[in-house]
């Protein structure tokens, strides 16, 4: 039976491997190559050594953008996972115990659908709507809700709070998905485990920390990586929502936004490629670190 | 497992806790649903009400003008068709290619298997924005810019990692004994894949096609870079249209609703399976 295995393997993997080789590996090789040039997108390609990286090192906006990515990278997963865990727990176990069965709150099926809705809306549309929510004059939804006597809040036009607004939208968009994901994970934790613990006198809080959390750890870890990747990107929201795309005064600039602007607005493809190389290594480092740090024995 | 904690003996429900849970759920649900409601609200308002400085929570004179004006735009219908064609091509190709790749990874042990799994994972992580220029140059070299096929190819590459990963989870969940039993009964290996594994992977194929559909349908940066205005999809058109004409909120929201309809319909059809489908890959990862 052993013979005839390789024709299948080669046949099944040839197409994806070829696609990756061309569209990902070759494309990235080219990005690495362009990072050492001063190419503008047109005309002759001239190699300039490490000039782009030196420029990057001395670019204040780069460090600022990096800090902003770091801010999102730290807070997006923490906020999203914390909120999602609490609500998934409420939906599944929050309804109390009746007749020896642990139940979710009333209407938990409906909640699951509602929570999933943001996931169905394109990020671009979400960005447009929240641009309205955070609008800095009285026509904005939040400002419209505030009493008339208040000064309108600036939100996205305020360089201290603009990035937080972006974070709020990212969390809003992501959290429903993780509620559903964690709910599914919690659903697969056997009823009898909860019952046994409840009989042993465990409170809801104990149940959450001693049983739910450890048993969901793998799912949480996966979620952490995906949210981290979203934090590295954040391009669509920054591009559509923010004042002056990354403003005010660079207060919401992120690496992806810098890449985009350098490529398409400033015709600095070489510099943009250098930023792409940096982003590449940062993302991979993050993923490797996350998987290593959060590795943990199953319960 | 939980141990005996001193002094804690409640087994029954605590009323306060339940009230708290329900209130929390309702509030949170409202926050989640509010923007969706606001889109609907704005889309059915006449222009004067949209521009009004005192926002109302219900359109006083509901109108379909915004939908008419969105649908009447020159590029609207062609963009919609483009989007559907590109999405269909990308998702169909991702399912076929992804299923076969997942089969190879899940059912065979071979040299380089680990490496392939790692690469599949790594590609998901790498920001695609950094590849826009090389991709553009590459597709231009083979005359695939300003075509639907070119964009569909790039989307296929984007969708593959998730597809392979999820389907791999599903296939690993099918006991190998089934394969063996079928082969003893005289099935060839190809027949095993076709008659046994493919049908059993059904829910996984549904889940990945939903994910693929949402991703491809909503993408706008890549298509905007690769194609001219005549070859955009609905999302790119919507955003382009917005910047072009300032803030015509009514038609924009109407356009957003029309753009979301296919995704919502798709979602409602398979809603029951979605949680299982989404988690199967992750949990068994």
From TrEMBL, chain A:
Major localisation: membrane
Keyword terms of this UniProt record: Cell membrane, Membrane, Transmembrane, Transmembrane helix, Transport
Pfam families xref list: BPD_transp_1
Positions of transmembrane segments: 7-29, 71-93, 113-134, 161-181, 224-243, 269-291
Topology term for the membrane: Multi-pass membrane protein
Keyword Transport (UniProt): yes
Source domain of life: Bacteria
Subcellular location: Cell membrane
Signal peptide stretch: none
Family membership noted in the UniProt record: Belongs to the binding-protein-dependent transport system permease family.
Organism of derivation: Actinoplanes couchii
Domain ABC transmembrane type-1 residue range list: 66-290
Keyword set includes Membrane: yes
InterPro entries: ABC_transporter_permease, MetI-like, MetI-like_sf
Phylogenetic placement of the source organism: Bacteria, Bacillati, Actinomycetota, Actinomycetes, Micromonosporales
Protein name: Sugar ABC transporter permease
TrEMBL record, chain B:
Signal peptide: none
Cited PROSITE patterns: ABC_TM1 (PS50928)
Location of the ABC transmembrane type-1 domain: 80-270
Topology of the protein relative to the lipid bilayer: Multi-pass membrane protein
Keywords attached to this entry: Cell membrane, Membrane, Transmembrane, Transmembrane helix, Transport
Predominant cellular place of this UniProt entry's protein: membrane
Keyword Lyase: no
Protein name: Sugar ABC transporter permease
Native species: Actinoplanes couchii
């Amino acid at each position: 039976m052993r013979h005839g295995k390789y024709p299948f393997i080669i046949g099944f993997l040839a197409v994806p491997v070829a696609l990756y080789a061309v569209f990902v590996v070759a494309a990235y090789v080219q990005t690495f190559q362009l990072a050492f040039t001063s190419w503008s997108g047109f005309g002759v390609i001239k190699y300039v050594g490490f000039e782009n990286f030196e420029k990057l090192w001395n670019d204040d906006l780069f460090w600022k953008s990096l800090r902003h990515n770091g801010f999102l990278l730290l807070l997006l997963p923490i906020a999203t996972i914390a909120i999602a865990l609490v609500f998934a727990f409420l939906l599944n176990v929050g309804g109390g115990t009746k007749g020896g069965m642990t139940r979710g709150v009333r209407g938990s099926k409906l909640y699951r659908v509602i929570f999933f809705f943001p996931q169905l809306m394109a990020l671009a549309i979400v960005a447009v709507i929240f641009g309205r929510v955070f609008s800095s004059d009285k026509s904005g939804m939040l400002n419209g809700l505030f009493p008339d006597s208040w000064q309108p809040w600036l939100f996205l036009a305020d360089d201290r709070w603009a990035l937080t607004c972006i974070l709020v939208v990212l969390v809003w968009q992501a959290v429903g998905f993780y509620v559903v994901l964690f709910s599914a994970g919690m659903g697969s934790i056997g009823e009898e485990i909860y019952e046994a613990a409840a009989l042993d006198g465990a409170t809801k809080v104990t149940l959450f920390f001693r049983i739910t959390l450890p048993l969901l750890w793998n799912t949480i870890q996966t979620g952490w990586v995906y949210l981290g990747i979203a934090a590295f990107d954040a391009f669509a929201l920054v591009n559509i929502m923010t004042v002056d795309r990354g403003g005010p005064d660079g207060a919401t600039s992120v690496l992806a936004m810098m890449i985009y602007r350098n490529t398409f607005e400033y015709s600095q493809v070489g510099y943009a490629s250098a930023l792409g190389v940096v982003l590449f290594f940062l993302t991979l480092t993050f993923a490797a670190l996350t998987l290593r740090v959060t590795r943990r024995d199953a319960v | 497992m939980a141990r005996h904690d001193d002094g804690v003996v409640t087994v029954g429900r605590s009323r306060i806790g339940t009230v708290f849970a329900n209130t929390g759920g309702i509030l949170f649900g409202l926050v989640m649903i509010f923007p969706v409601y606001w889109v609907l609200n704005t889309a059915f308002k006449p222009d004067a009400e949209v521009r009004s400085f005192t926002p109302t929570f219900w359109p006083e004179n509901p109108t379909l003008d915004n939908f008419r004006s969105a649908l009447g735009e020159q590029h609207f219908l062609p963009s919609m068709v483009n989007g559907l064609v590109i999405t269909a091509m990308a998702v169909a190709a991702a399912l076929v290619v992804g299923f076969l790749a997942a089969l190879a990874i899940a059912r065979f042990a071979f040299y380089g298997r680990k490496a392939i799994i790692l690469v599949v994972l790594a590609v998901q992580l790498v920001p695609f924005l950094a590849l826009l220029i090389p991709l553009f140059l590459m597709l231009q070299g083979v005359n695939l810019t300003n075509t639907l096929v070119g964009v569909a190819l790039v989307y296929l590459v984007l969708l593959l990692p998730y597809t392979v990963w999820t389907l791999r989870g599903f296939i690993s969940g099918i006991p190998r004994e089934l394969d063996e039993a079928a082969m003893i009964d005289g099935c060839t290996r190809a027949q095993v894949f076709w008659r046994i594994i493919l049908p059993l992977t059904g829910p996984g194929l549904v889940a990945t096609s939903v994910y693929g559909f949402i991703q491809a349908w909503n993408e706008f940066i890549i298509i905007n870079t690769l194609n001219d205005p005549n070859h955009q999809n609905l999302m790119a058109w919507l955003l382009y249209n917005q910047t072009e004409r300032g803030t015509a909120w009514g038609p924009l929201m109407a356009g957003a609703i029309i753009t979301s309809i296919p995704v919502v319909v798709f979602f409602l059809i398979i809603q029951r399976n979605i949680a299982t489908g989404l988690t199967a890959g992750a949990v068994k990862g």
